[in-house]
Amino acid sequence: MEYLAHIDGKRKQSNKEHLYGTAMLTGDFAEAFGKRDWGYACGILHDIGKYSAAFQEKLLTGSNKKVDHSTAGAKVCLEKGGMHQFMSYCIAGHHSGLPDYGSSSDAGNAPTLEGRKKKKIEDYSAYKNEIQIPELKTVPFNPGETPNPDFSLSVFIRMLYSCLVDADFLDTERFMKDGGTQRESGEKPEILLGKLKEHVADWLLNKDTDTVNGRRTEILRNCFERGQMERGMFQLTVPTGGGKTIASLAFALQHAVKNHMDRVIYVIPYTSIIEQNAAVFRSIMGDKNVLENHYNVDYESSEELKSMQLAAENWDKPVVVTTNVQFFESLFSNKSSRCRKLHNIANSVIIFDEAQMLPTDYLKPCIAMMEELVGNFRSSIVLCTATQPALSLFFRRKMPITELCPRVQEQFRFFERVTFENIGTISEDELLRRLEQEHRALCIVNTKKRAQRLYQKIKGEGVFHLSTTMYPKHRRLILEKIREKLKNDEKCILISTSLVEAGVDLDFHSVYRQLAGVDSMIQAAGRGNREGKRNAKESFAFIFQFDEKEYVPGQQLQIDVSKMLLKEGEDISSLKGIEKYFEALYHFRGESLDKKKILREFEDKKYNFAKVGQEFRLIEENTLTVFISNEEEAEKLLQEIKYQGYTKSGMRKAGKYCVQLYESDIEKLQGAGMLRPISEDIEGFFELTDKGQYTEDMGLDLGIESGMAVLM
Q1: Does 242 fall in a domain?
Q2: What's the confidence (pLDDT) of residue 621?
Q3: Which domain CATH number covers 140?
Q4: Closest Cα to residue 431, out of 352, 510, 314?
């Protein structure tokens, strides 16, 4: 009897051919971290359940009857025991997702590994006539070099799983498309390094360290030189204006070439910075080499971008730019679609841009994962920021962190652009009186409602408001107007929330920042005298507090720690002050640096992959979405969503007309008759029915009193 894996019309792929094809690919992928034997064995065993008569009948008849073909390989691994048993998670979950271990009381219908052990499945013993179980020649890692062997083993299993699911998909795709897959991997790091060196050749001639460009070149040159170092952990502590984007790329490409690494991955907290950086990288290295991977990118709507859409599935490009959310949630996911890319993180240079924004609620599991990537998966990590968090407290492996910026203290003195001044507690009216005297000033407050209230009191010619009460497309238009005013040195007063603190290139004479986390206040100050055209003693970053108490969800501890340091007379803008802030913040957070107790789910060889995949969410779903259809394109999109239902590309396009609000604000707007749900199929998605509530200068007005109602 011929045992088949796939049928496409008259074309057939035998199961033996599929298993060996997948095994070769899985082995190739696992070779990135020195475990080809594990990858090969996993690939050979993953589909031996297809050797059952029931599966063959299903395939040949096109029946919809479910036949479990994943449990067989897992059972064989568990029965063989030894190291093979660790592969059982990967094989059992190669379609449904990595399972939880479960308990000995689980019945055969449970979705856990223990349940799979007891599950009655069709006879698959015919595999023995065609397939041999390969032996394993290596161990997953050196147990003497890891502080937490269980967590290390769980990451190894996850990486092996990634190799398997990507290889399985690619081998199947290759057969179904008869080789025409449209996948393009891009150019090698050696070629990209050449392009970058050509781009910066003239810069490198500048040796004058008394100029801004000379200092940037000094940092850049040092990054090229340090790129020759062996793999490891690095940090690039560069003040605002020091050119860290190109400097970090110089290190990464030089380092990748020196150490025969496959790609550079940028992990960035905000999509605004991603879009900015990706545009710079594309201009230097070409569009086909840079994959931008986050929710706002749409590669699906154009056939020309097909190769990019395919690369987004498994990150098979030499430069990947993505978000903290995408990066870490994938690394802790159990789903095959999200895990496919993970093996391509191995043997990569990973740059964490704005490293102070690493998720505090999950800091311990994130750092444990970063240590695994460096210690066991041949990656190098660079923590890149002007406000370096005190992360060395949490690294449990003995890994030195090498600084890539030369003369760090001296660079910070040179790039000083503003003078910090704590003006203490003031009223809103006092703040507004100060702002009225200014010509070019930025004022950042902690809440959207406060920003709207202040703007309402001061609005007039040359006064602007920016916050997430405006949909993204609207914000971009307002930013263009602000940039034009600043360029022409016209009056420009901006009242904003923290969204302008990073990745927004603005240059004000003065900055007013309501007390917040030290990193936020320094980022805000970076929008003052950005081009260095004024003396630092003439440009101020004023720190203030309001005279009435205000609770800021998710930020209160940061505010309290900053308040404590200011009371102690600490210079919060100094490197020492920044370090003290993060040390105190992490000390007070204590156990809540692993809020969901993620690390406890990987103990005693009993790993809860599915539970962690569900629990690990960097952005909790505590906001709801309001669609603003004030523009013609938006109205058209709204009708499409209403009548065609949910589609990924439709929702992605809708994103530029959406505002995220807390439930309490949604309730007030609904109570006033201003909102209605768009569709029963899409939970938490509303349209604004009272279009007058959204204005050109304020966005969605949140000044609604509870209990207000519209009488019809």
Answers
A1: yes
A2: 62
A3: 1.10.3210
A4: 510
Instruction: Let me know whether 123 and 16 are in one domain.
Output: yes
Q: Taking residues 473-501, what's their average pLDDT?
A: 95
CA distances 47 to 11, 55, 61, 319, Å, are 19, 11, 19, 33
The least confident of 230-244, 288-302, 450-464, 644-658 is 288-302
Q: Are residues 270 and 331 in the same domain?
A: yes
Based on the fold, state whether residues 291 and 396 are members of the same structural domain.
yes
Q: Which tokens sit at 28?
A: 């190739």
Q: Minimal CA–CA distance to 385: which of 555, 502, 476? A: 502
The letter for the amino acid at 577 is: G
Domain with 463 in it: what CATH number?
Answer: 3.40.50.300
Question: Which pLDDT band holds residue 567 (cuts at 50, 70, 90)?
Answer: very high
List strand residue ranges (DSSP E) for 120-241, in order.
Answer: 233-237
Q: Which amino acid is at 132?
A: Q
C-alpha torsion 88→90→94→99, nearest 10: 80
Clarify whether residues 157 and 195 are in a common domain: no
Q: What is the mean pLDDT of residues 244-261?
A: 98
- Residue-wise pLDDT for 307-350, tens only, equals 888 888 999 999 999 999 999 999 999 999 999 999 999 999 99
Check the CA dihedral 52-55-59-61 and report its sign. Answer: positive
Question: In which residue are the tokens 């100060």 written?
Answer: 434
Select from 223, 159, 182 the least CA-distant residue to 378.
Answer: 159
The DSSP code for 305 is G
| DSSP secondary structure letters along 391-423 | GGGT--S---EEE-STTHHHHHHHT---EEEEE
> Which structural domain range is residue 231 located in?
189-412
Residue after which a domain boundary falls, among 176, 210, 242: 176
Same domain, 378 and 491: no
Indicate the pTM of the whole model: 0.93
Number of domain units in the chain: 4
pLDDT band at 405 (very low <50, low <70, confident <90, very high): very high
Per-residue tokens: 482: 């602000």
Residues 6+ apart with CB under 8 A from 510: 438, 440, 441, 442, 528, 539, 540, 541, 542
Q: How many CB atoms lie within 10 A of CB 135?
A: 10
Domain contains 582: no
* Neighbour tally for 467: CB within 10 Å: 26
- 404's tokens: 């890539």
Phi, psi of 123, deg, nearest 5: -65, 125
Tell me the C-alpha distance between 396 and 147, whole Å: 6
589 lies in a domain? no
Q: Could you tell me which residues come within 8 angstroms of residue 596 by beta carbon, excluding any fewer than 6 positions away?
A: 361, 362, 615, 616
Same domain, 641 and 691: yes
CB 420 within 8 A of CB 525: yes
Query: Residue 711's pLDDT is what?
Result: 30
Are 155 and 23 part of one and the same domain? Answer: yes
Is 604 inside any structural domain? Answer: no
